[in-house]
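Hello,

Our lab assistant flagged a job as stuck in the queue for most of the afternoon. It eventually completed. Since we weren't sure the result was trustworthy after the delay, we are filing this so someone can double-check. Below is the sequence as submitted and the structure that was eventually returned. Let us know if re-running is recommended.
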Amino acid sequence: MRLKNLSRDRLVEAVRRNAEDLVKLVEMSRGMGLSTFRVGSDLIPFASHPLFEEGWLSEVRPILEGARSRIAPLGVRLTMHPGQFVVLSSPSDEVVSSSLRELEYHFWALDVLGAGEEGIVVVHLGGTRGDKASSIRRFLSVLERESWLRRRLALENDERALSAREALSLAEAGGIPMVFDHYHHRLNPSPFDPERALSTWGRRTPEAHLSSRPRGEGRRGEHGQWVELEDALDLARLFGGAKVDVVVEAKGKEKAVERLLQEARSMGLLEETP
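-- returned structure --
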């Protein structure tokens, strides 16, 4: 649906389709033995846009509650990861305000879908414009002012601005968990303590992201079609066998997951989820 076509009726129709697709995808994931699923940010199109009318969320809430009744028995953890335009460290008040609106929507969606405290919303620090220290200070200032963010917000290391060590320190300072991205760590390496990263999660299960470099040429940070088993094994070694929910990021999507699981099973490396 395009913004110029946004209306109450078209929104309800789109959300109904998206919710049905979500249920099917979660069911498929559970059937593959997976226990974590990332919900797409476009579940409710343009939910944080200024043209999205007040009251429309109430209109579509019953649709998501219907999806919740079908997803909840599956026992799958739901998380979300909004786009790069969410920048809490921005020097622009307008960007920060729009980022907060987007995060409010994500938190609301996970609430209605029945995601408990395990349902996190993952963000990056964002571009630092050559002044990382100021970006970090602004990020922490927003966290201090908007304390509700700590209920679901998690911080991920990235391939350019924020190394794993820096993300860990910032997450600890902000009182939020750190999501470790293995591929980003390979592109932007730093010495860091995996045990400290795990401890930022408290009683929640940590989440990590797994992807591989594209075969052949690709832009920096671009995800490959598949995930290489050696990358999965390296991630497992890094955390020493601790229980971690791994989100696979690959262009091959479920086929990439199936291929990785088949390789792991063939080597007797996979602990199946009951």
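-- support follow-up --
The delay was a queue issue, not a problem with the job. The result is valid. The longest strand covers residues 36-39. The mean pLDDT is 94.
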